[in-house]
Amino acid sequence: MNYVWRKEWIKAYETPWSIFEKLAFSNRVERNDILRFFGGNDVKKIKNPNIGDSRRELIQLSGFNTDLLNNVLNFDLIGNCQQSINSLIEPFKNFHEPLDQWFPKVLHWCPACLSKGYHSWFHQFILIKNCPFHGTVLHDCCPKCGGHIPFLLSDKGLSYPFTCVCGYSLSSSICSEWKVVWGEPVGDIQDSTVKALVSRAARTNSQSQWLFMLQHMTINLIAEECQHRAFVRSVENKESEQWGDSKRLQLEFNHRNKEVFKAVERFIRKKMLKNHRHCINALQCLLKAEGEDFPPICPYAYAYVFWRTTVLKSKNFYSIPWGDDIDEKNGIATQIISDKLSYLRSRFWSHTSGEYRTHNTRLIQLYWIMDKITAKFCFNFFRQWLHQAGKGVSDVKVPSWQHIDKMVDSSFPLMAFKYSIVPSDNNLIECYCMPETTKNIRYECPFLTKASIQALREMKSHSPQAVAMKIYDNPNEQNKELQRNVEKYVRNLMT
Ligand SMILES: [Zn+2]
Ligand SMILES: [Zn+2]
Ligand SMILES: [Zn+2]
């Protein structure tokens, strides 16, 4: 088979995805034909028309024949991909994550670059959110139909080359000029962090390691201006802590987590919402005047009450027992991020497990990391609930868990921790985070006047328990009707 191909159509850091799209376009061949032509022996043996995704993957090109690719493209595609990938993940090699965690399964692209037929490993790298050449936010779904395109040599999600199944063209280069456009250089990298990363200036020396969550991290955090340094000095303890996930350690983590949550909660109640104490009380106790509808909900009370309920994953938002309702024996308080915190903890332990030293220092560092992330998350998540509150109080409803999960994702702090692994200097740990850019939202509180506060004081609790007691005392139709109304009201506010 003779392919129309020019070596200059391949650019530095280009992924096989756009190379194959160009090949399909310039030769008017199907993607499956390309796969069958370049496929390794395993692929060639497959008679079945359906070839599985594992043979279509573009990270290691394990389904492809190296020599055939070299000969036709006149380029060592597999070797070059390996090099590009390694230069991006080199500073984070202590992570030992599978490659498809660093390069997601869904295509991420820059429309300006794709219009020159170029899709880059930079675009596909999970820590890069903006095109390093154009600065634009990368796409991960079709702007027209919202569909995802798998990062595979596959027809899934695509019709013609560079074209979504819905017909949307991902590349405006599909014009008469394509031969010229594909040959043009891509230009210089504008993003200084990415530039430094590939020129190896930002490569962490082997004296330190990173800890972060891949999906809550951007490469720009490494830039100097984001750096917020903090030093942790531990007192060397004669008695070394038991390393590993022992019961005692778990309890200590639970305890610290609860303390952090309570500190944030105190701050929110005492500083941020000090004028809304009675509003919060009205919602938590389901206060209502006899024979009337429930009063309007104060947006600040809404934000606080549902923030608290969802962080703790409590069953009920109402009738919270006074005093201590967080059981630290059974887990961490901030249940909603429990998986993420466990992940980070296990990573930190496995990153530092081979060290010869007392683990006390590492333990104190880990406590510090967990405290910092938990506090920041709690504040961010409260802000998300404040955003939600306007709509929430007018609909008298809480959002679905699907929506809440999105709020959790956008509240999880973008933070990276860098710590030294030099035996003589193991106390230093640095936290990298983005500067704050949040605006405060203002709402009208419905209980601003003395008269409205007085009216609240005269209302009674209509929690499901209180209403059940009423029926117990007097099971008339009016009370049963009341019970139905209260249940309906509460149901809309249950997460
Ligand atoms: Zn671009
Ligand atoms: Zn589409
Ligand atoms: Zn209020």
Q: In words, what does this structure look like?
A:
By secondary structure, this protein is mainly alpha-helical. It folds into 2 domains: 7-195, no CATH class; 247-461, no CATH class. 43% of the residues lie in helices and 5% in strands. The chain contains 19 helices and 6 strands. It has helices spanning 16-27, 31-38, 41-45, 66-73, 77-89, 99-102, 111-114, 121-124, 178-183, 192-198, 247-272, 277-284, 299-312, 338-351, 360-395, 401-411, 450-458, 464-473, 477-492; strands at residues 208-211, 227-231, 287-288, 415-420, 428-433, 460-461. The chain has a 4-stranded antiparallel sheet, covered by helices on one side. A hairpin with a 7-residue loop joins strand 4 and strand 5. The chain is elongated, with a radius of gyration of 28 Å. 32% of the residues are buried. The model has no long low-confidence stretch (mean pLDDT 89). One zinc ion is lined by residues 110, 112-113, 131, 133-134. The site of one zinc ion (ZN) has 7 residues, from loops.
Helix content: 40-55%
* Most strands sheet: 4 strands, antiparallel
Number of E-state strands: 6
Associated small molecules: zinc ion
- Indicate the mean pLDDT: 89
Provide the gyration radius in Å.
Answer: 28 Å
* Secondary-structure-derived class: mainly alpha
Number of DSSP helices? 19
Silhouette: elongated
What fraction of residues sit in β-strands? 5-15%
- Low confidence ranges: none
State the separation between the terminal residues, measured CA to CA.
60 Å
Written as H for each helix and E for each strand, in order along the chain, the element string is HHHHHHHHHHEEHHEHHHHEEHEHH
Query: How many domain regions?
Result: 2
**Going across the major beta sheet, what is the strand order?**
1-4-5-2
Q: Which oligomeric state applies?
A: single chain
